[in-house]
Amino acid sequence: MEFLTSRVIIHPRDPERSMAFYRDALGLAIFREFPGGTVFFLGGGQLELSSKGSEPASPDLALWLQVRDVAAAVAELRERGVEFTREPRLEPWGLHEAWLADPDGMRIVLVQVPPEHPMRRDSRTP
After folding, report:
1. How many C-beta atoms lie closer than 10 Å to residue 92's C-beta?
2. What are the distances in angstroms from CA 69 to CA 7, 52, 106, 125?
3. How far are the Cα atoms of 3, 49, 76, 113 from residue 20, in angstroms, in the given order?
4. Among 109, 81, 85, which Cα is nearest to 95's?
5. Would the CA dihedral through 10, 13, 18, 20 be positive or negative?
6. What is the pTM assigned to this prediction?
7. 116, 65 Cβ separation under 8 angstroms
8. Which of 35, 99, 108, 113 has the most beta carbons within 10 angstroms of its beta carbon?
9. Of 15, 103, 20, whose CA–CA distance to 52 is shortest?
10. What is the pLDDT of residues 14-46, one digit of tens each?
11. Helices (H) and strands (E) in the chain, counts
């Protein structure tokens, strides 16, 4: 089986507030809009806000967003008024992470992968 693309779908409790957050605060570019929803570009995948949800975000779910420079990303987002729930730091698993939350409380993890990290190495045998 071959997967061609991926999309995360969120049903926010307040669609307008979430739209402003993802578009204006995070600065995601819009891929497409349709009645009742918006799809954003999200790296190699997409993020869709559609319908209206009734439940808060699950603490068991997080949106993992890799950035080139986590300190620069945090500074840029702070200029846009974004507050962080956890300051940038080097985690024991070797990734630089900073945490924030969307308007419904979904955890968003900004991640910088250092050049020496195993995720950057080709693990295939020659």
Report:
1. 5
2. 24, 33, 22, 30
3. 30, 11, 16, 28
4. 109
5. positive
6. 0.89
7. no
8. 108
9. 15
10. 999 999 999 999 999 999 999 999 999 999 899
11. 2, 8
